[in-house]
Amino acid sequence: MKADTPIFEASHVSLRFGGVRALTDVSFSIDKGELFSIIGPNGAGKTSMVNCVSGRYSPTEGRILFKGRDVTRMTPNHRAEIGIGRTFQNLALFGHMTVLDNIMVGRHHLMRNNFLSGALYWFTGARTEELAHRREIEEIIDFLDIQHVRKSIAGTLSYGLRKRVELARAMALKPDLILLDEPMAGMNLEEKEDMARYIVDLNEEYGMTVVMIEHDMGVVMDISHRIMVLDFGKKIAEGDPEEVLANAHVRRAYLGEADDVVMDEDDEAAAVEAKTGKVA
């Protein structure tokens, strides 16, 4: 799982919107092949951090490195081209297009379409390349078990299926690093279990490094290799799930627990459910 050089590094990242500090001096790194989760209470800065990683926001201060390259001022499209893909907390599918067409959009930057070679290409390799792309898309569709809706209009699908289609489109980018912003939000228990399995398989079988924001603490603790906790835009903890769960600052920020109170597992699970509305 670990590599000598991190695939991603954030160094002293701060983000301000006018007088509001969304992030303050946040530093962390992610090794190639990790499943890394970012958690914290509502308004902690999780999505702001992911937006800085994807290029949607530019940090006010600090640097962001991807595969050793400074991408701090790089556009989202350019980051997608070099291997950073993402899904969104709020679905960003083309509702009037079919599932297949939505996923194909994710392949756009992989198509050879420059002006100088374009004319010759369409007479020689276009058909071959299209078939290769279609084969890879079909593999993704099979992987996510959405064969039965491949020709359906995306906007007509259930919420859980649309979440899977959005993941498929992000996978179609063939990213080395994939950002998942609350992939299980709004799902029932069965849908969450399926999505958790897809994310683990995506990490293990496809070899993608995963950065996930998720409020379901049970899922986070079960599948994450390492976790970073944000609170009011600051990093308050980082480590493996056991370390983070035992951290007094995390319990205080996330569970509302005083530092000198020790909770047993049943009390802790009840506190998580009361605080987040989700079963631990």
From TrEMBL:
InterPro entries xrefs: AAA+_ATPase, ABC_AA/LPS_Transport, ABC_transporter-like_ATP-bd, BCA_ABC_TP_C, P-loop_NTPase
Keyword Manganese assigned: no
Record's keyword terms, sorted: ATP-binding, Nucleotide-binding, Transport
Database matches in Gene3D superfamilies: P-loop containing nucleotide triphosphate hydrolases
UniProt entry tagged with the keyword Cytoplasm: no
GO CC terms in record: plasma membrane
Annotated GO MF terms: ATP binding; ATP hydrolysis activity
Domain ABC transporter: 8-257
UniProt name for this protein: Branched-chain amino acid ABC transporter ATP-binding protein
Organism: Skermanella stibiiresistens SB22
